[in-house]
Amino acid sequence: MFDSIIIGGGHNGLVCATYLAKAGQKVVLLEAGDQVGGLAKKREFAQGFNAPVANYVQHFSDQVVKDLGLSKYGYANQGADSPLIAVGSDGQSISVLGDDLEGASDSDQAAYKTLRRSLKKYAKALNSSWNTAIPKVGDNSLREIGVFAKMGLNIRLMGKEDMQEFLRVFSLPMRDLMDENFESPLLKAALSWDGLQGARLAPRSPNSAVLALLLKMSSSTEGGVSLGSSQLISALTQAAIDAGVTIKTNTRVEQVLVSADESTVVATGVKLTDGEHINARRVVSGVDPKSTFMKLVPADYQEIEFIGRIDRFRSKGLVGKLNIALKSTPKFSADVADNGRLILADKMDDIEFAFDDTKYDLPSEHPVLEVTIPSSVDSNVAPAGKALLQANVMYLPQHIEGGWSEQAKLAYVQKLIAVLEKYAPGIGELVEAAELLTPDDLEKEYGVTGGHWHHGEFAADQILMMRPTYGAAQYNSPIENLHLCSAGCHPGGGLMGAAGRNAAKEILR
Amino acid sequence: MTSNLMTSHEAYTNEHGKLSPFHERQAERNVRGAWAEWNGYKFAEYYYDAQYEYFCVRNQCGTYDISPMQKYMIEGEQALAMLNRMVTRDLAKCKVGRAMYTVWCTEEGRLIDDGAVFRLADDKYMLTCGAPMIAWLRRAKLGFTNVTVTDVTDDIAALSIQGPTSYSVLRTLNLTGDDALETLKLFDVREFTFNGKPITVSRTGFTGDLGYELWVDPAHAIELWDAIYAQQDNYGVHPYGEAATDMLRIEAGFIMPFVDFNEAHKTIHFRHDHSPLELNLDWLVNFKKPMFNGKKALLEEAKTGPEYRLVKLDIEGNKPAEEAWLYADKNCTKEIGYVTSAMWSPVAKANIALAMVKPDALKGDIYAEIYYTQELRQKMKVAKCELKDKPFWAPERARAVPPFQY
Amino acid sequence: MKQYDAIIIGAGHNGLTNAAYLAKAGLDVLVLEKNDYIGGAAVTRELEQGFKYSNCSYVCSMMRQAIHRDLDLARHGLVLVPYLGTVNFGDQLNDVLVDYPNESAGYNEWRRRNPHDADSRHRFETDLARYAQLIRKTLLRTPPDPTSFKPRDIHELLWLGKTFFSIGEKQLYEYIRFFTMSATEFLEEYFDDPLIKAAMASPGIIGTALGVDSPGSAYILLHHVMGDVDGNIGAWGLARGGMGAISNALMSAAKSHGAEVRTNSGVAQVLVENGKAAGVVLENGDELRSKIVVSNLDAKRTFTKIVDRKDIPERIFKQASNFKIRGSSGKVNIALSGLPKFIGVPDNRYINRGGQGFCGSLKTMEKAYDCWKRGTWSDDPFIESVIPSVWDPTVAPPGQHWMSNFIQYCPHELADGPWTPEKRDAFADSVINKIERYSPGFKDLIIHAEVRTPFEIENEVGLTEGNIFQGELTIDQLLFNRPFPGYSQYRMPVKNMYMCGSSTHPGGGVSSACGANAAREILMDLKKANTVPEDDFYDE
To answer: What are the b/e assignments for C193-227, b being 16+ CB within 10 Å?
Structure first.
């Protein structure tokens, strides 16, 4: 008999399992695939090339690093080392790393410093909110009052003017935030990127982009990125094993076992696809909320409105992943650092118009890209002398007119290589292998509903005590002893680990 | 191009109500032209006189057109599971050939509507209710793959025949089937053949008296009507409308939406809707069932007790206590509730009402503050109320098997 | 030199409302209007003999009845008539949806298209009413400052909290979603039918820089259905005699309390002395002095055009420059020699008195938005039309009519250079051609047409960029953020200066609420008895 079963070996599942095991629980983690790591697990798409979908770390929780002693296993939030580089089709480039901006006008430099200072202040004020369960509102419990008072106080402590500005700015579309501050269209496009990527948002979309940006600034890297997520996953895996977590791969859960009596509905274990039953005191789902409640828990035991709210949880992924195996490291016309994160968009309208196509179920006619060359920092990801290029492509809907046939994908890969060719002439010649993962592929291969990176939109109405929805927002669910710990919970996605940690804290409370 | 397009006016017939399959005959009898509307159907408020029609039902029998009632077929392997998650009673206990009156609630345990579920076959149910429910049924289906919900409202003509001579009238129709009509118990449902055409008969109704509901293909509606009305001189059949129905149902203690309760999905203000416990429908709430929508909230409410209780009142005097406030004292200082439905009951010769009363006030005195007019003068009286357990009208004959034949 | 108690810049409906309440409190009030007519965007203009266009705003539903009643506007000539029965047209000719005011007819009409939607509409309308009534309660109240520790602000914040919590935990979450969702997402939770969705979505884009797919458009939808006429929530009213009748009645009420109104008196600058507003300088150089100055102009115009930059904190100048006030709507006002007939719509005495919604589908509407984003207009625009003359015998000669056509979207600036008369005509053609498709022979009825792009609206009415709300209605510019954080209580950074236009809470729409709220704050500062009534809304 286990204390806890964790379904799914994504990074949040690993984090949650390790916290529970460290607290003395007997924990088993069940992973359907042959390795753990979720979207960050190894992916050998061409011989010798390892291209995880989630290939860089931006805001992994410092608290988790500390609590789980990840440094022992070779992982540290060592600070951002990969600059964000705005690359223009004309060869111009602006490089951003931390508080420093290179290649921009004086006034943009000054504006960046001012905005950065404010954003860091807001991010800091919000930080404690990400690292705790947000109680439900309205019952005036001490805990509720405590958490919200702390949230309010943190915001108030910014000072009157900053608070006023925060209350105005948090809902701004990226476009307005950028237009208010900067001159350079190229810089605006690149700086807006982190507020938009992974969400159904374009520069003109209000309400959620700034919050997403602030979430990404929550760890000590302050929004900066370091390439290579594999170290993180192997550290988490080792930490889990050392803490005593039993990890079973190739073990797919078919159903959460539920028993009900007059007064309660309780989760008692899981049934595997091979028919085996595993019983436990509690079941913790690390898979996305939609899969959990629409596929794993029998409908008979769920209230109608609740399952309806899960069903409406917005989780339409729009980001494609392009992996290219290259004969050698490509040369960009612009002067860019090898370890940079290149944003290929000349102006915000390029992003906006790329988004417009997806509204009509079309992939972007003129896609915008975020390009990294992981092989420039990690020699293990590509055979010696060769190079790996990975790009996040915006925007690709999961379902397009005519479907994502192999042919359609091949044609789109050609389109993307043509885009890259503009920035790195000759790159086409270097291509050994290429693959495109659409959101549909992500759903099929990684099991995330809608192919959404974060299991569901990080949107103002889908965060805090509303993520994934009320009734399941405190890492529990209407079914007793069934808990959630995935990115579909507060505070959401990215390689962050906060959801896994918060879930464990709630379970142990 | 334009001329033929201009003449396509399908949309604009909707200004007039839809016509029931029985409309042609009912229109002949609606001598006062008193039409109301129900779910978009033109529908009689009364035909000649409400009181007259009421006595026809209590003394002989009457027909009431329930074609506008909403009817849904729920079929498939998971039909039972889906419905059982939705309604508060345990439909597993409803055998084929039986019907159940039940309610269904929101997750907060507030009443969405009430209605009857007919089990027509192992995997086939018909749900009938007063208001459209297709949007809720679609939501209630979420998570189940092996079940279909079909709106058959316009595909079935339905006529209720109620009153002591209803059975005698039906006998003359020479219905043939596996079981004899006389064996039908309350809430039984049977298939018969009428003039070679299929007809479903259920022993159900909304009057608290002996009565049946007949379900046929709309194409045979007029034929059925005519056969029933051929017995008019023998058994006194008369159509009755909404006004008489309202009298009949209050005497029987049946609740009416937007009168005695507010449908949850149509309630704007927080908690202005009602729970089945408030409506004294505890007997419909099966807490033994593993799960049903609203169970958690209702369990909680059962612990703390509902805010109000719907009760039956016998009120002193003869002035109907319509919209009256209720008090614990004669001076009307301590308010304890309000009347939802009230009337003078002609059969019970009593001034009756359904009312919402705070549970802790039920042990004490109840007074109604009744306003009425007398030749345009506003009058008020305070009347003592007495709680009643039983419906004001529940004759033996309503349940008798076989029913009495005239 | 005479010193007025208050000078109000701009004789729009809010400025006049403000004047009426200040005058009612005994103040010596002067209203200055740059045009030779009053009313701002609530005007009736006879641009073709016998035809009286409401050439800007054309319907109203947000007009606070407490003000209507309190200022005795009926006696000053105002009659508001609810109009109902709008016909919505789908992308396909002959595909129509009639919005019957009669519940049963409406149900059947929806059921004809989609039984599920006909049922779902009950819950939709309940939900909408629930959220609308919450917002409606805030209309005639001054927003609290969340950063303030003043008892009044704390009290008002608590009131807001209590009001919002009164709907219950679950509804509170649902309500929050409303602010952040798109109209499309919101509607898809209720409806399937493409035309029903489009017709229901149309209030979500009126006047905005958002599309039906943009997050936040659900709130605009609410903003447009929270009004009421005589308790009919979401109903729209026509003013007998055109929208100018509202302004005229307000002016008449203001004058009856002693206010003075001067037209042809554009203000060049607000006089600021020792950090205090002291009067105004007119465009002709005249100087007028007053104890307080109230601007009915939009926030951007006020602080970037008529207040000297050195008289205000730089932060405010920046915020005013960044104030989001993108224009997105156009109007084509057309005089007709007869009543147009529409494909699929028979001669029907009831529905021909309603409006016409050329909404097509969500996709058509979103595509029109895409055009606007690209600095052009769609040749398949969303048009909301009404023919006021079928209700109102005073606005067109007998047997003849005028049709108000409101177009979403129309850019303020075109991608290919400034507006020219040719481009304006081309824009009008896109509108008229679309109507002609649904109403063959329509063009032959046209006697006169007036075309107004955001460019004309800015130049004639004075609304910056032609934005009809005096500032976009997004969260960053609502409630305590409107117009700027810290200045939502109608007092401006210059002492003795106030704002009373739609740039302030509760925003656009012919509601008179901004003007009345501002008056209440001014009177409080002057330690005068309040003359502004409390709101009187139907609590259904």
So the answer is: bbbbbbbbbbbbbbbbbbbbbbbbbbbbbbbbbbb
- CB of B185 closer than 8 Å to CB of B398: no
CATH number for the domain including C253? Answer: 3.50.50.60
Are A207 and C216 a contacting pair at CB < 8 A? yes
Return the residue of B nearest to C117 by Cα.
B135
CA distance B83 to B80: 5
Of the candidates C71, C63, C199, the one whose C-alpha atom is nearest the C-alpha of residue C139 is C63
Residue of C nearest to B151 (CA): C115
Which among B275, B237, B239 is positioned nearest to B255, based on CA atoms? B275
C-chain residues near B6 (CB < 8 A): 341, 343-344, 346
Domains identified in chain B and CATH numbers: 17-67+156-252 (3.30.1360.120), 70-154 (3.30.70.1400), 308-390 (2.40.30.110)
- Asked if residue B364 lies in contact with residue B124, where contact means CB atoms within 8 angstroms, the answer is no
In a domain, C257, yes or no: yes
Q: What residues in B contact A311, CB-CB < 8 Å?
A: 142
The answer to whether position C146 is within a domain reads: no
Instruction: Identify the pLDDT of residue B10.
Output: 54
Q: Which residues of chain A neighbour C168 with C-beta distances below 8 Å? A: 138
Mutation target vs C (from B10, B18, B268; most C CBs, 10 A cutoff): B268
How many helices and strands in chain C, by DSSP H and E? 17, 20
The better pLDDT of the pair C536, C475 is held by C475
What three-state secondary structure class fits A355? helix
**DSSP designation for B98:** B
Which region among A81-85, B150-154, C291-295, C392-396 has the lowest average model confidence (pLDDT)? A81-85
Within 8 A by CB and 6+ apart from A213, the residues are A119, A174, A194, A195, A223
Phi/psi of residue C481, each to 5°? -95, 0
Candidates A269, A228, A390, A275; CA nearest to A324 is: A390
Segment 261-320 of chain A within 8 Å of chain B by CB: 261-263, 265, 293-294, 299-308, 311
Backbone angles phi, psi at B10, to 5 degrees: -50, -40
Residue entry with tokens 């719907």: B310
List own/partner pairs for C428-434 with CB under 8 A and 24 or more apart: C428/C332, C430/C377, C430/C378, C430/C379, C430/C380, C430/C381, C431/C330, C431/C332, C431/C381, C431/C383, C431/C405, C431/C407, C432/C332, C432/C334, C433/C379, C434/C358, C434/C379, C434/C380, C434/C381, C434/C383
ipTM field: 0.94
Report if residue C316 sits inside a domain.
Answer: yes
Residue C112 domain flag: no
pLDDT band at B6 (very low <50, low <70, confident <90, very high): very low
Tell me whether B151 touches chain C (CB under 8 Å). Answer: yes
Residue numbers in C near A179 (CB within 8 A): 322
Rounded Cα–Cα distance for residues B67 and B24 (Å) = 13
The pLDDT-based confidence of B13 (bands split at 50, 70, 90) is low
Neighbours of C399 (CB within 10 A): 9
> Taking CB atoms and an 8 Å cutoff, what residues of chain C touch B5?
93-94, 343-344
Question: Is the pLDDT score of A231 beyond 60?
Answer: yes
- Long-range Cβ pairs for the range A182-185 (8 Å, 24+): A182/A108, A182/A111, A182/A112, A183/A105, A183/A107, A183/A108, A184/A86, A184/A94, A184/A104, A184/A105, A184/A108, A185/A346, A185/A347, A185/A348
Number of domains in chain C: 1
- Domain hosting C276: range is 3-80+241-325+464-525
SS3 C271: strand
Residue B2 has pLDDT above 60, yes or no: no
As a whole number of angstroms, the distance between CA B82 and CA B70 comes to 18
Both structure tokens of C468: 């009809």
CA atoms of A282 and B198, how far apart (whole Å): 54
